[in-house]
């Protein structure tokens, strides 16, 4: 009887002849290491038929060679005598598993031998390497079960076999759509998300430059030359405004075209006639012409133009009884969504400067000195012609002689408020209101040798509101008028200034209030009702300056 290691069951098998006793199977030893993944199965070879040879003695354990393929099973021979059990060799490394051969034909069972006595169990040696399988002998008779031998040591775990390929995914038909469930209740409102990015814009605001002042002491009616007290700060091209000069001629603004010492030349003739040319007249000048450059990527442009407001005329001196006329408001024009494609790379911008109020006078029976007309505001030049701008707003007219009111520019799309007439031994008239353009200035209060009268209210935008909107003179003898309201969030343009209050008791008459920003008309000056060379009539109030705002969208 011999013990042989069975590599397929991982156990020791008793092998013997019919004469030998076969012990019972010992208890299963402890499990080895974790079972490796099953390797791919090899193909089964054909079973051969060979004669059974006698079982030889167990030889010395050699080095384990690679496991060869299983040979064909021979014909079952008679059982040989069982040799003595050799010592178990040291376990060698596992060889590679060969492919399984085909199962041979079962041989005939041999006769069962008598049961031999059970030998003393020997000490378990280390597990030797599995030898090459011999041919199968015929199966002997089953002997009486012997006592259990000691459990042999667990063999070394074999290396894991390679993982087999993944099988193809089966194709199943799509199941029917289930019935829609009922809607859940509405959840609470989530927090407000951050504000999105605003549409990018480019905003350019144009106003006149610094308004400088000097006086003109000598000039000739009909001549384009004026002698001034000083040419400081004067620059050729500046707009020039004075009570005796028109704001433009055939649409061309009145500007300084030449400077020779204190003699300057202007671009339009001083054709108006005054009786008081010996009075030093204040003149104003400022830069007001600019260039707008179209931003890269511009899609459209909005343009707001407000023209300069007309100034109030000065009040008369008795025997004249009239206060000065109020100036008209400047026009407002707002054009939106001008396609950037029709605009040139650069476009001219002209900002209307304000009209200058008529000078106060102390000449007996003097007429009112004109208030200057406000200058036009415009943007662009259609086909390069500045007389045909894309957007235009006309300046307000100045107060005239004998208390005449300044008239609104008829070229405006949105009409402005006209000035109020100066009162003739009576209160001055209120300026005119407008829907969105600037309001007109109030007329100056009249006077005579025994009484004085209040100046008229300056008007504001969007209606005839006597509370908070109109500028109101105080009614105090010789008091100046009040400036008009300026453009804010609730009004579109400037309001007119109120007229100055007349005087007769040894004091100056009140000056008219200035027009509000932007484009408001100036108030007329009050009348001096009792001549005294030591006192003056009221000067007219200046108009409000204009503005141009260009907003570009990308």
Short overview:
With 554 residues, the chain is mainly β. Helices cover 0% and strands 16% of the residues.
Structure description:
This protein has 554 residues and is mainly β. Helix content is 0%, strand content 16%. The protein contains no helices and 18 strands. The strands form five sheets. Strands 6-11-4-5-10-9 form a six-stranded antiparallel β-sheet, with no helix packed on it. It has a four-stranded antiparallel β-sheet with strand order 3-18-13-14, with no helix packed on it. Strand 9 and strand 10 form a beta hairpin. It is elongated.
Helix amount, in percent?
A: under 10%
Structural class: mainly beta
Outline, from the CA principal axes?
elongated
Sheet with the most strands: spatial strand order? 6-11-4-5-10-9
- Give the integer mean of the pLDDT values: 77
Taken as a percent bin, the fraction of beta residues is 15-25%
Task: Offer a few descriptive terms.
elongated, 6-stranded antiparallel sheet, mainly beta, 554 residues, 18 strands, 4-stranded antiparallel sheet
Topology:
Layout: E1 2-6, E2 11-15, E3 201-206, E4 212-219, E5 225-228, E6 239-241, E7 248-249, E8 252-253, E9 256-260, E10 263-266, E11 281-286, E12 289-293, E13 300-306, E14 332-339, E15 346-350, E16 377-379, E17 391-393, E18 547-553
Antiparallel strand pairs: 1-2, 3-18, 4-5, 4-11, 5-10, 6-11, 7-8, 9-10, 12-15, 13-14, 13-18, 15-16, 16-17
């Amino acid at each position: 009887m011999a013990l042989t290691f069975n590599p397929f069951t991982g156990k020791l098998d008793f092998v013997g002849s019919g004469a030998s006793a076969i012990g019972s199977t010992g208890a299963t030893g402890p499990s080895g290491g974790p079972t490796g993944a099953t390797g791919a199965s090899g193909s089964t070879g054909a079973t051969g038929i060979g004669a059974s040879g006698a079982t030889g003695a167990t030889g010395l354990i050699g080095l384990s060679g690679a496991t060869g393929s299983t040979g064909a099973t021979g014909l079952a021979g008679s059982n040989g005598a069982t040799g003595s059990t050799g010592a178990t060799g040291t376990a060698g490394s596992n060889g590679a598993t060969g492919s399984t051969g085909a199962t041979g034909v079962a041989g005939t069972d041999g006769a069962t031998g008598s049961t031999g006595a059970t030998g003393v169990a020997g000490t378990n040696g280390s597990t030797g390497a599995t030898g090459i399988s011999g041919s199968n002998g015929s199966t002997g008779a089953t002997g009486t079960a012997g006592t259990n031998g000691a459990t042999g040591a667990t063999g070394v775990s074999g290396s894991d076999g390679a993982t087999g390929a993944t099988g193809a995914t089966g194709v199943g038909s799509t199941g029917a759509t289930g019935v829609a469930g009922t809607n859940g209740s509405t959840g609470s409102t989530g927090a407000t998300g951050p504000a999105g990015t605003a549409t990018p814009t480019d905003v350019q605001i144009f106003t006149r430059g610094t308004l400088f002042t000097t006086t003109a002491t000598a000039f000739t009616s009909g001549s384009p030359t004026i002698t001034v007290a000083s040419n400081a700060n004067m620059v050729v091209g500046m707009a020039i405004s004075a009570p005796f000069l028109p704001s433009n001629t055939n649409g061309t603004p009145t500007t300084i075209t030449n400077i020779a010492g204190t003699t300057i030349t202007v671009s339009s003739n001083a054709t108006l006639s005054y009786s008081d040319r010996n009075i030093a007249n204040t003149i104003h000048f400022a830069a007001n012409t600019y260039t707008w450059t179209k931003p890269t990527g511009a899609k459209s442009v909005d343009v707001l133009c407000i023209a300069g407001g007309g100034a109030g005329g000065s009040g008369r001196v008795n025997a004249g009884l009239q206060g000065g006329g109020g100036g008209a408001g400047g026009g407002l024009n707002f054009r939106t969504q001008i396609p950037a494609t029709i605009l040139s790379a650069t476009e001219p911008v002209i900002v209307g400067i304000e009209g200058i109020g008529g000078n106060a006078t102390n000449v007996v029976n003097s007429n009112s000195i004109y208030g200057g007309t406000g200058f036009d505001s415009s943007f662009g030049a259609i086909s390069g012609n500045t007389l045909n701008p894309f957007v235009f707003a006309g300046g307000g007219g100045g107060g005239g002689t004998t208390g005449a009111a300044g008239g609104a520019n008829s070229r405006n799309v949105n009409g402005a408020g006209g000035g109020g007439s100066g009162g003739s031994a009576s209160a001055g008239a209120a300026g005119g209101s407008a829907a969105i353009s600037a309001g007109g200035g109030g007329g100056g209060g009249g006077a005579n040798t025994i009484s004085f009268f209040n100046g008229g209210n300056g008007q504001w935008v969007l209606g005839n509101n006597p509370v908070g909107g109109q500028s109101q003179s105080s009614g105090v003898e010789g008091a100046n008028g009040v400036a008009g309201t300026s453009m804010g969030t609730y009004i579109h343009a400037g309001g007119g200034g109120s007229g100055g209050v007349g005087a007769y008791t040894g004091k100056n008459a009140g000056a008219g209030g200035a027009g509000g920003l932007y484009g408001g008309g100036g108030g007329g000056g009050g009348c001096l009702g009792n001549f005294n060379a030591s006192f003056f009539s009221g000067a007219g109030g200046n108009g409000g300056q204009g503005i141009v705002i260009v907003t570009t969208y990308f």
